[in-house]
Amino acid sequence: MTGTRCPPSEPNCEKDPDKVFRIIVASDATWIDDGMIRQYREHLPIAVNWIDWLTQDDALAGIRAKGVTIRPLVFDSPTHRNLVQYSNVAGAPIIIAILGLIRYLMRRRITRKVYSNER
After folding, report:
1. Domains of the chain, residue spans
2. pTM above 0.85, yes or no
3. pLDDT digit string (tens) for 32-63?
């Protein structure tokens, strides 16, 4: 809906045609909920377009929202999926532990060196 209105404190004012309000009436916000967006992907572009329209900026409303698509990972086999999953879960801590061990061994080797002031 669009229209003009007077402030509640001035009920008998003249309505200014330059001050237009915009409103969208929806039953509730569950139609833009994450679960509904997964089932009905067309809800997200509608919501984005409504927000553009509500900002009262016609330049933004002219730009249509690009469709957001979910891009699932595609694996050749369950073994490939498991390999990727477990390497992501365990790989980072193992790499950090290996780097820490290398650093520890290098520092230990440096502290065992005997320095002398020879000329």
Report:
1. 2-62, 73-119
2. no
3. 788 888 888 887 888 888 877 777 665 554 55
